């Protein structure tokens, strides 16, 4: 009895064109598809390129990209918030270091934190930013 109901549901799904492998709605992406779409859009931003920050506290400042992290995932939820860049002199944070050995004192280190790649745009010169779609 139950097997026939399951068989009917499977046949109904096949006839209607529904698939377990296709997105439920037209605009939905999987995490991998979204990540590759974002990476393609911002492919002009690479290590060593000069970029201009277009959002955030450092908006309008220009700096050089130190590193690009294209596949960043949140550890707990495994959600891809991906790609990030570290720009020289932008988004500075203070990292507090505890003393590890006896007699050693603690330190405070100023270092660059990462910025989402959508908040920067590559520039050829200080006056002409490159469009993100190029």
Descriptive key words:
two-stranded antiparallel sheet; elongated
> What is the N-to-C order of secondary-structure elements (H for helix, E for strand)?
HHEEEEEEE
User: What number is the mean pLDDT?
Assistant: 77
Give the biggest sheet: 5 strands, antiparallel
Helix content: 10-25%
Distance between the termini: 59 Å
How would the global form be characterised? elongated
Task: Please indicate the percent range of residues in DSSP E strands (runs of 2 or more).
Answer: 15-25%
Which class best fits the helix and strand makeup?
A: alpha+beta
Describe this entry's structure for a reader.
The structure is a single chain. The protein is of the alpha+beta class and 134 residues long. The protein is built from two helices and seven strands; from the N terminus they run H-H-E-E-E-E-E-E-E. The protein has a five-stranded antiparallel β-sheet with strand order 6-3-2-1-7, with no helix packed on it. Strands 4-5 form a two-stranded antiparallel sheet.
């Amino acid at each position: 009895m139950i097997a026939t109901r399951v068989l009917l549901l499977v046949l109904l799904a096949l006839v209607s064109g529904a698939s377990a492998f296709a997105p439920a709605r037209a605009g939905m992406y999987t995490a991998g598809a979204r990540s590759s779409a974002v990476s393609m859009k911002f492919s002009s931003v690479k290590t060593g390129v000069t970029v201009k920050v277009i959002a955030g506290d450092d908006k309008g400042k220009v700096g050089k990209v130190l590193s690009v992290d294209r596949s960043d995932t949140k550890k707990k939820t495994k959600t891809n918030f991906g790609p990030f860049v570290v720009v020289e002199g932008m988004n500075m944070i203070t990292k507090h270091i505890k003393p590890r050995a006896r007699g050693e004192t603690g330190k405070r280190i100023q270092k660059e934190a990462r910025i989402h790649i959508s908040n920067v745009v590559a520039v050829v010169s200080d006056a002409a930013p490159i469009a993100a779609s190029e």
